[in-house]
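S.,

Sequence below, as promised.
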Amino acid sequence: MKSALLVLACAISAICWANNIQVSNVLLASQDITDNYYMVQFDLSWENSWRTSTYESNWDAAWVFIKFTPKNVQDWQHATLHYVDGTNDGHIAPAGCVIRTANNTYGTTTNGIGVFIYRDADGIGDISFEGIQLRWDYGTLGDNQPVEISVNAIEMVYIPEGSFYAGDGVGTFGQFEAGNSGDPFQITSEGQLTLGGTNVNNLSNHDANNQLVADDYDYSTTQTLPAGFPKGYQAVYCMKYEASQAQYAEFLTRLSPSQRSERTEVILVDLVNIYPILTGNHFAIADYPWRAMDYANWGDMAAYLDWAGLRPMSELEYEKICRGPSNAVENEYAWGNDSWYAEDYFTLANEGTANEMVIAGIATDVGNANSTSIYQGWGGPLRCGIFAASATNKTREETGATYYGVMEMSGNCFERVISTGNSQSRDFDGLHGDGNVTGTGNASFTLLQDWGFVSAVGVGFRNMVVSQRYLINDTDSNRERSYGIRGLRTAPN
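The prediction came back faster than expected:
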């Protein structure tokens, strides 16, 4: 994420890096005091962008949202961007650019939490859009009240609507299957499903075999997965990378001291590659801003996604994002095969910097990942997107990419997802964050009944082998070195 801070009409850079997405030259281009809106203008750029109408038929995008506060108050609030019908919202897009306003928060009537910005035609390579203007409906803020604003951008990947297979034909750790057939189960809609049992029309789990905490369904017990639970069929945008330490520091900077205290913890400084984020004078600073945020508990993740207007992914969405429409491969990783280069440690150049690279050890015909089980000798995650930046041939195996181009879904940090194996988690209906957290720094939106920021019941982990469900019902709400943050948002309709 890159944010740029504006005080009145003066642009002040707020340094915040994550894979070189940049927001710059922010200004208030114009104001309408009759309809109470500003046009917020800025430039936006990022590297390794793409759009394709063949094969994956997808693109990458920037999720852009705005925060504001009355000057010198430090009471940051989420800006509402104008929404009419998602295609003609009063925003101004430069040539080559599409702007789509978010309109679906599932359970609320709030539109305009943010916008998706992406290419309007097929292409590949670095991209830069100059003179973007978003209409901010400031409402009752006051026509002459001095404000500061922060324009924030997160790299996302569009995952198109479509069928996919859940499970890989292996039953070692509760993998999904069609009844008790041992075959992967095809998801063909967002409709209600029966979980468990032996009928091939049911989404079952190899009798909950060898799970750390078993699902509440198996061959003899069935449950219902409601139509509202996100199953991966519908189109979504997923964060291209795990949230970086810089992104989390930006989040902390926009909180009050009391909110911030709930979202930070003193970590022993002798650990390697941890996230110690220093706070003071309203600013949070990450020691390793380019690396994936770790030591995030469930409350940290929920609050960050709420603040950013995003949501967690379900475990079915995780498999769709990794596998796409391809047939399942037994024990496959996110890059589509069962081979992973783990024989030797990788060799790093520019360790701990924005240009951290792998210069020796990267493989060309098997997958590359920084394993959360051994962390390749570094004791923690590396720079977000490091294998994509280091790869020569840019294949899925060399970059460690999913079918759709999402990075580090195997490796770096554990992916925390919503489980199908718990009655509370099955109530999740894809509700997005509204951009605000509570006065105590917790998520303000209700995800799973009265869930959310203390107990992690219904939230488990996926990592490395795509279909393995060993930790899917693990309710660990502690801060651990392998626990990161990633979210998504259902695509505008």
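The two ends are 25 Å apart (CA to CA).

Coffee later?
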